[in-house]
Amino acid sequence: MRVAIASDHAAIEMKAALVQWLQDAGHEVSDLGPMTTDSVDYPDYGYKLADEVASGRAERGVALCGSGIGISMAVNRNRACRCALVSEGLSARLSREHNDANIIAMGARLVGIEIAKDCLDVFLKTPFGGDRHQRRVDKLSAPQIEGASA
Known about the structure:
alpha/beta, five-stranded parallel beta sheet, 42% helix
């Protein structure tokens, strides 16, 4: 599988470990940066990751920052992306089964590397359940909110 991964400076070590783990598992990995611990802005890397997945250059994505919250918000600005913040295997599984998430986010300051590997493994192996979930997922990419102004 083609997997893109991006982080901010707080998650450099986790990103490096996950890149190696993904490559060892036979995945084609695009490391979108950053490559140093110099301070960077997580939205820049979240947008870059979102574009990689939305364009089809990557089938799945991994977004990392200190908490996972900021970068997931940045990724989800792209309507083609469904990024789920996860911290254990069950949320990773449900993000795929029910929400057809194509990107997961994790917080390097909150999740240990072994849990992160487990989340990523479950995320990559779990298929979308489709069926009753499809119409809900469709609404995520084309929101129509009653009473909302443009």
